[in-house]
Automatic annotation (TrEMBL), chains A, B:
Entries under PANTHER family matching the protein: PROTEIN PHOSPHATASE 1J (PTHR13832:SF305), PROTEIN PHOSPHATASE 2C (PTHR13832)
Record's compositionally biased regions (Basic and acidic residues): 54-64
Cleavable signal peptide: none
Organism expressing this protein natively: Zosterops borbonicus
Protein name stated in the entry: PPM-type phosphatase domain-containing protein
Length: 497, 497
């Protein structure tokens, strides 16, 4: 466990804000110890690759497109996780993907009077500090610069850790989470009318408060999901605050897998993808957020807030641009509450550009961006206009949960995370085929087998350089995009380190 | 095919409005021929039951709760469809469910210069009139009065027919639907600047207009979906227009199954449910729309339009009401972009009542209503306030499609439609079990077998009257709600009439 980030986050904590209702975010600070602080928005590759300057130059070469993986003899990723990446074929100066893999210790936040402070034991680790570990793998696919992806790869796990710090005791207590906690004195929020109330003295656990008849049960799992969701929001806020000083143009998609207390939480905001391959079966662990998949949310917002369209766009969807001479004809359209199509008479307002336009990889929102969730993009505007894109983007991930304890996993069961560079040219089934094929040719105990899978996935999506560019085995065009892949063995916990 | 509604809709058409961009809706008219016009909001049962006055009285008896089905020797429903219903145990004066089953002829709208008018044949039926039939089954579960459900049961299929009339040629033409149609002269919308344009003379089919490079393909199926979606909207508009004159208080959930050109389109707005049971396998054909399932849509609207909350509600969700003395404590909450839960410090604004509150069948929006899609409810307000509920409700259905031609169906494969009275006490698996059990005890050719299934489903959900009320076989409480069920054989088309 060489990559552990322990109490590093304690120093960072004060700079992150305390969540809704808490203190306003303080000024940003640098990353905690244990990680180098790269110069603002400098090109870099994931720290765990430990590239030498020469290797870094090679990784940055668009013509060779050498596949990068953790080298033999250097640090190994937790659970023998496989990783591989390759730079794009020239579409941007550097590889705008980033990756992170960490084991993070979540230390309970010191509290002057914790609601559970009188309880015994439960999570006392490492010399008396209460807390737990989570494992973390994440891919960030940047656009319009690598700054946002670099910063997110260095900080998102710290934000997740920060969100979990208040939950250390609650998550380790098998009883249902308390609906309400006592006054938070750190937040300085005491109500002067309530100081004499008995349940405010902190020693009395939540159970002493009379329960209401109508009270919704909330699971531990949904607290972790909420923590991850809010961590993405805090990460996005941090990029917003620091974008000027740290030079963070652009944005990034974010896909993170968190292993915590027997469960995988896969959080996705963007168009990367995660799938589990278990006994040959494919289990989707994410879905993509694009102008097409989020059409109704975007149209709904545009309908309610037409001023966001700057008189340039219509919230209706049309199958193509309308020409002025078509006024009065009937054209197919879709409104926000429709999944089907119908004809409408073309009016003056319909001549504006449609909010959502194009299909598949070419679908764009406001003719500008092809992903609708992610981090950053605070300054993104429609070309040659003052229309902001950010109000339509969401930084919130969808989190899917996979309970590792519900199934006996074999060494060939894996979770694959990949940026769209992988999935643009390879579907789930093909990926599963490669995974099974490669794993079969290595011993179950071979520490390199998951790296070999990751490399093979990257090579097969990149293709081979021929006269007519990068070509796949079937002679179709390979992916010219940055490609990054994690292959995480599900038999990991307890088996490998 | 005794229940056909043929050109009846022609007379109704002028009163329905011509869809987006068309004429504003004209004044309402009565229903077309072929159906009796009941007195406004009078209690009635579905016409196809052909109840005598004495039978009607019996159907309206809360103590006996006699199950009603089409009688032997009277009209049979298309495809030998089974139907059964029972009144509630006293929660409302009358049975507020309604049902409709029709075979509807969609006659092409006469056009002075149709875009396809020069083409031959294709759908010329019944003495030269161009058109096609669709089969239609629908359940309407009324609340706060039966008026909306009664009107919807009499008109929704006519609105669907009306929406399809412009599509008769397009749906019968195997080539992709045209993106754009020529000027619609009926709508009186000619642009004086465009009258000399060549493609405006109607004789030139759409293909003559140069196609754009970026043009989205739209399927025939999605045109039917769009037609059904807009028909629900027009139905809702009609209820709004006529609610004063026709005395239509309240609203209704609507679940409709349309069989058209080899496919079932199942449209659901509310908490009724449709499942297909095929070779013992259950295929869900709808999902329920409730404050819980639509939480994020409702919270999003409330966040963007806080004035709709009338200062009485907060868009945040809490697991229970907050007491004023809890100000400053931390409580679990969920915002519109979250699926998980997190703690926030309770502020003054959080003391307002949550927009969504309660769980399961007790979940309510604005403490008022437990369904979030349906028809009607235009006058519904939060109790003792001036806060309208309707802006949060959607009249748009979700439409799912099942292609009947993709599978060889046996006589035991059925589509079951049921109001929530059925599903509150019986799950999908139990329903599938009853279906298979009953069908097994009747010959495949027995014309009554689907009616027997419907009756058995209703009886098993209603239970038997004991000293402690209506009880199921397992002694749990039976459904005290109105219960209505259609059982539609999927081997229907071409096999039965």
């Amino acid at each position: 466990m060489l990559l552990r980030v322990r109490a590093a986050v304690a120093q960072l904590a004060a700079g992150l804000g305390a969540g809704p209702g808490g203190q306003p975010p303080a000024e940003p600070r640098g990353a905690g110890p244990g990680r180098g602080s790269p110069p603002p928005a400098a090109f870099s590759r994931p720290a765990f690759l430990q590239l030498t300057p020469e290797e870094l130059r090679r990784a940055d070469d668009h013509t060779g497109r050498a596949v990068q993986s953790p080298r033999d003899g250097r640090r190994r990723l937790p659970w023998r996780t496989g990783y591989a990446e390759v730079i794009n074929a020239g579409k941007s100066q550097h590889n705008e993907d980033q990756a992170c893999c960490e084991v993070v210790f979540v230390e309970q936040r010191p509290s002057p009077r914790g609601w559970l402070s009188s309880r015994e034991g439960g999570g006392e680790l490492d010399g008396g500090r209460k807390g737990f570990y989570f494992h973390y793998w994440a891919l960030f696919d940047g656009h319009a610069g690598s700054g946002a992806a670099v910063m997110a790869s260095e900080r998102l796990h710290l934000h997740i850790c920060e969100q979990l710090r208040d939950l250390v005791e609650i998550l380790q207590d098998p009883s249902p989470p308390p609906i309400c906690l006592p006054h938070d004195t750190r937040a300085g929020s005491a109500d002067p009318n309530q100081v004499s109330s008995t349940e405010d003295h902190g020693e009395v656990p939540n159970d002493a408060v009379p329960r209401f008849h109508l009270e919704k049960a909330v699971s531990h799992e949904s607290l972790v999901i909420g923590a991850i969701e809010n961590a993405f929001k805090h990460m996005d806020d941090q990029i917003e605050r620091e974008r000027a000083s740290q030079h963070l143009p652009g944005g990034c998609c974010a896909l993170a897998a968190i292993y915590l207390m027997g469960k995988f939480y896969v959080a996705n905001a963007g168009d990367s993808r995660a799938i589990i391959i278990r006994n040959g079966e494919i289990i989707p662990m994410s879905r993509e957020f694009t102008p097409e998949t989020e059409r109704q949310r975007l149209q709904f917002l545009a309908l309610l807030r037409p001023e966001l369209l700057g008189k340039e766009f219509t919230h209706l969807e049309f199958p193509r641009r309308i020409q002025p001479k078509e006024l009065g004809k009937k054209m197919l359209y879709r409104d926000q509450n429709m999944n089907g199509w119908a004809y409408k008479k073309i009016e003056e307002d319909d001549l504006k550009f449609p909010l959502i336009f194009g299909e598949g990889k070419k679908a764009r929102m406001m003719a500008t961006i092809g992903v609708t969730r992610g981090l950053g993009d605070h300054d993104l505007k429609v070309f040659s206009s003052n229309i902001h894109i950010k109000p339509f983007l969401s930084c919130f991930p969808e989190v899917r949960v996979y309970d590792l304890t519900q199934y006996e996993h074999c060494p060939d069961d894996v979770l694959v995370l990949g940026t769209d560079g992988l999935w643009d040219v390879t579907n789930d089934k093909e990926v599963a085929g490669v995974v099974m094929e490669v794993l079969m040719s290595y011993e179950p105990n071979d520490p390199c087998r998951y790296t070999m899978v990751a490399q093979e996935l990257v090579v097969r999506s990149r293709g081979v350089l021929k006269e007519r560019g990068w070509r796949l085995a079937n002679d179709k065009l390979g992916s010219g995009d940055d490609i990054s892949v994690f292959v995480i063995p599900l038999g990991g916990p307890g088996n490998y380190t």
